[in-house]
Model the fold of this input.
Amino acid sequence: MNRSELVADVAAVTELTERETEVTIAAALDVIGSALARGESVTLAGFGTFERRERAARAGRNPQTGEAMEIAAAKVPAFKAAAALKRRVAGA
Done:
């Protein structure tokens, strides 16, 4: 499912227009992204938690040349699914 399909499905369920739904989804994603940038986590009960994780610096290799290189530390977004979502996906 891509973004436009998501918008169409949510619009059908909520009885909002597709434009209103697009604006709402864009705003929700923007708020989640902003919270993660501030180091906060966002928990949606029954769905999961979005959080920012710290990835340590590490040694790596350039796949084209095989040359050793240092990969810098990074802050990356992560998602941990809630038990209810895991059960739903598994079909239980």
